[in-house]
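Changelog note: in this version the structure field was regenerated for every chain. One regenerated record is shown below for reference.
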Amino acid sequence: MPSPLARLPAPAAVIFDLDGTLVDTVETRIQAWLAVFAEEAIPADRGLIADLIGSDGRRLAREVSSAAGITLTAGRDETIDVRSGEIYASLNTHPKPVPGVSALLERLEAAGTPWAIATSSRREQVAASVSALTLLREPLVIDGTHVLHAKPAPDLLLLAARELAVSPEGCWYVGDATWDMLAAVAAGMIAVGVTTGAVDAATLRQAGAVAVVASLAELGI
């Protein structure tokens, strides 16, 4: 049976999520969120946190708190998000690229295919992970501080497309989370899921992925 990727048009550009897609950091993210909720004395369900990884951190703070029966006061979601980022930065000292990422990025560079990273993470949280990719040049990174609304809103992705000077419709957005697929659909991009994060293929498809792979090595671009 032919791969679903074979039916997709060649990308004019490829935009990637970061955590769980290019670097193996989802578990570190979960641990950071569990730690901040423990500090805030907010009961937190690990499974719910895992499901929300990749979304806007303020939204994650509100949803986990709401599930615990707690309504956050104005601005407390921001405070929790910032503190989670601080804890994450202290834990994320030796992030590892996911299998296949180096070869994929090298192929894109060799082919002259524009690519970028669009992540809900704050600017101060991405440096270690981008450094772990050991790239020859600094990539275009659109992070959560560049827009008012992070994923699942399309703002990050649309800004990345504008910076790359390509139409959103010609872009593939590759991500490992529900929020990545929802953002890609909202942006009018081709949503490609990869099961290197916290959710399975069926969940990614339900969120809008037109193709799902188990590894970046399977992308073939």
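Spot check on this record: The beta strands are 13-16, 115-118, 141-142, 171-175, 190-194, 211-213. The radius of gyration is 17 Å.
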